[in-house]
Design a protein that fits this description.
With 186 residues, the chain is mainly α. The chain has one domain: Tetracycline Repressor, domain 2, CATH 1.10.357. The protein has helices at 2-11, 18-25, 29-36, 39-60, 66-79, 81-88, 93-103, 105-116, 122-146, 153-172. 27% of the residues are buried.
């Protein structure tokens, strides 16, 4: 996976032959196919592994502010920009963007739970979180693929936090979401 990340990042494209990845990793092409099935699956697994190692796992162990987490996300994507730019323009883009949206969940879940607590049914909370996170992932996608060089992680973190604050403020006046009964159950 490390060889795949390095080659895709260096070449700026996900269209790296499996034979090149296998050679760089010091393994046979057949082993790559046996383990991952095809190049697209290998690249997606490499991206997901990178995200998990650098963003998901470390943050589960500590309680960070929304800004700290947003800054870690922005720094991660800025540091690996060439790789993610290529991946966001590959056959694996949809699956990767979906994973990025899931990565941003901690930035939104706290606000929703703090505001609505048990009033918001789990399914509706998940839907709202997915909606918000999908939009945030789209912003990260555009920033990585089209942003000016060099990317500014501080500014992106501020943008992500500002979106959360605007949504929190907008939701502050909502007593109960439309269509949610007083005695809500899942």
């Amino acid at each position: 996976m490390g060889a795949a990340i390095a080659l895709v990042g260096a070449r700026g494209t996900a269209n790296v032959p499996v034979s090149d990845i296998a050679d760089a990793a010091g393994v046979s092409r057949q082993l790559v196919y046996l383990h991952y099935g095809d190049r697209d699956n290998l690249l997606l697994e490499a991206a997901l592994d990178l995200v998990r190692r650098e963003l998901a796992e470390p943050w589960r162990l500590q309680r960070a502010t929304r800004r700290d987490y947003a800054l870690a996300v922005a720094r991660h994507f800025a540091e690996h920009r060439a790789f993610y730019r290529a991946m966001f323009n590959s056959a694996s883009a949809f699956a990767l963007i979906r994973s990025v949206a899931e990565l941003l969940t901690p930035l939104r879940r706290e606000s929703l739970e703090a505001r609505f607590g048990e009033v918001l049914p789990t399914r509706l909370a998940d839907d709202l979180g997915s909606f918000i996170n999908g939009g945030s992932a789209a912003i990260v996608h555009t920033w990585v693929t089209e942003g000016e060089e060099p990317l500014d992680p501080e500014a992106m973190a501020d943008r992500l936090v500002a979106i959360g604050q605007i949504l929190s403020t907008a939701l502050a006046g909502v007593e109960r979401p439309v269509g949610v009964p007083s005695q809500s159950v899942d």
